Amino acid sequence: MSGTAAIELRDVCVIYNQGTPDEVAALREVSLIVQKGETLIITGGNGSGKSTLLRAIAGTAPVKSGTILIEGTDVTRWPAHRRARLLGFIYQDPVLGTCPNMTVHENFRLVAGGHWWSLFPEPLRADMAQLTLVHSSGLPLGQKAASLMNSLSGGQRQGAALILALSSNRSILLMDEFTSSLDDQVRTSYLDIIAKELAHRQLTILGVMHDIDGIDVLNCRSIRLAAGIIQN
Amino acid sequence: MSLRPRTAFLRASSFSVAAALAALLAAFPGCDQRKAGANENRVFLIGITQIATHPGIDAIRKGFIDEMTRLGYQEGKNVTYDQSNAQGDMPTAQSIAQKLAQQRCDLIFAISTPSAQTVAQTIKGTPTPLVFGAVTDPISAGLVTSMEQPGGNITGTSDRWPVGRQFDLLLQLVPSVKKVGLVYNPGEANTEANLKVVEAVCKARNLEVVKVSVANTSEVQIAAQSLVGRCDAMYVPADNTVIAAMQAMVKVSEQNKIPLLPGVSSNVEQGGFGTLGPDYSDVGIQSAKIAAQVLKGKKAGEIPVATAERFEYFFNKRSAAATGVTIPEDLLKKAAKVYE
Amino acid sequence: MIPGILDSACQQGFLYAIAVFGVVLTLRIMNWPDLTVDGSFTLGGAVAATMLTTSHGVWTAMALAAAAGFAAGTVTFLLNRKLGISKILSGILVMLVLYSINLRIMGRANISLLRIDTLFSGFDDRGQGDPLRLAVFLVITAVFFAGLCYLAVTRLGLFLRATGDNEFMVQGLGVNTNWLYLIGLGLSNALVAVSGALVAQHQGFADISMGTGLIITGIAALIIGESLLAGLASVRRLFAKPNPKENAEVPSAGRLLPWKTFGELTAAAIGAFLYFLIIAICLRLGLAPTDLRLATGVLVIVGIGLQLRGPMVETYARGPL
Q1: Is the ipTM of this complex over 0.95?
Q2: Is B4 exposed, middle or buried, given 0-12, 13-18 or 19+ CB atoms closer than 10 A?
């Protein structure tokens, strides 16, 4: 084993609603290793546990047993916001990845550096247009800097969410079916953005996708989940 | 989201109309400026403010107006009343006080402690005098510096109840009493002073006091029921919350045959075997006498604070019978009011 | 001489506006329906009155009132985050508990400030309709307004607003949103407590029931203000020229300011003023105070009604209120 893996799961079990009649074991003793710089795609039918797998790593699923390590550190006991310093997350629903009632400019200011408790005034320059990512995405985020995020279309918001996640410079990215609400052309262009970013810096991607059309552009391996167990 | 032109126009015009109306009313000087007349035929403007609707407070107001009429101040002829009721809301009491102060009334009559306090603050710096009614402890309310020489522009009537004589009546009619239960609301300003007097009076007569506190009228019934078995008689203090739920107290007392001594005479009509007290209207009458002196030119601060003087017996035969209390004939004859 | 109605509305409106700022901070900016305010308003008055009557300075009294309000907000936050009690219920519980605490602080149900030196004692000799008093009240409110607008522009303000908008995104940035909610709730209740302290000094006493119904007053004032601002925006749109093509330029610095938050704060201030203006007008029209509540309620309904299909409906659809 060359160095520490980016993500490692050892016998992780996730059980929802334990002790109630609705109890369901979403993940059963799943073990997984994702190397640094690797792209791993997880597929599976509905209810197979693929979203739960991502949530277990992110810290928002009730892990009952097992160990989760991120870059060699045991994060099983860490709350979600602490893990978020190492991970980026892109949601399936465009609403969740951005602040809908704040402007595009303010959303980009959130991911910019600086302590959250700072009492200095925020700069008033719409400089997100200068980001290479924004350029290559073709999204008119510069012109829309003063518009509310929810005035953008769903596809544009998803693109903005993608750029925000990539801008935060995390080395690990979790993507939860984020292309499922996009049409083919837009999907291809967003996957292109990810591919360019991969060429740019070392990025570990763990993605959940419903169907694997169009992901050949990303050099990756894939695994399949069914009923909480890895199939191959 | 763009509006259809007609909708936008309707909205714009309705807001303009509302704004114009508000501006008009704001600029309307109306009843604010009054010329200070010095001639004999002047009409006095008396502002009356009360904190809430309440049989006792209403009786004071009526007594005041009736006595003023009797003293020669006829409504419509030489006096106008501006009456307001805060319906229990503090900011509204404050708004009322501001309105009365701005209207340059010749006198303001405020019934209850919070109403009096709001007026006392707003008349600072104006020549308007304040006469208060039904403030149990005017000194700690900050209204006056002493009962004999109130000072400033404020005086009035304080409603101290003859608690000692009330308990003497209780002991006379129910000699076996050892423990007295009472329900009270610690959130009322007057009640605290009242309670101190009750406890001192009971201590002097070797009676034990059992207290239960409530925060609003809906809790009174349960509180009263919790006293059953823990006392031989119950007392209703001059507490607005408990008085508002008088029926509950009466019901519990009659169902469990516990004699009930109301501290406020106007409540005897609802129940309790009887009590001693001034009619609340007597407080109004005393206040009117003071007000007349002020209107004639005497400085309010030089008129001593009046306390209710006349005490009468009040009995309720039905309630007395229901709780097993016999009222002697000679007292019945002396009574100011006997309810059947 | 200021006409009576305006005088009345300004005096009360300006001081209560600070409490409405507190309501805006939790209800609108952080999306947390906080019912603690009935209790923290009285708490501010109680603490200030107790300190003033025991010969402490005005500024000590106000600072302590603010600190007490902050503490009350903290308790509400802890009940929700650590014990998992719902936001509304946490606020109600703290409000109930504060009733007893306020009685204990004051030692009695009512503390008179009529003969005590307060912040506003200097105005005592000037009577009603005094423009200097109104100017001072306006300055006090303006200072708080400016302070909160500045907060909105800072990074902390940005995160406070973001937390109320999408807590998950803020967590995804690695920030523990608990701290943000703590600051938001604490600051909001501190504002309400300061308002209570000011009102107690202005009206001449602190009373256990002075905060009763404050959340209703606050929300009513807020809705009136928001309706008026939205109405003005409608009028403006009516007269604005339609945009021929998409604006292809990057917006200037001025447009990047948090205008929405500024608008919410302005609505709070205007709403408080209008609320007490309506009460003053109704009193002079001779309406019974029971009808007063009816008049205010009708105005609020009309205000919402004129907002049909506007942003207001969306806002109410999303929260529990």
Answers
A1: no
A2: exposed
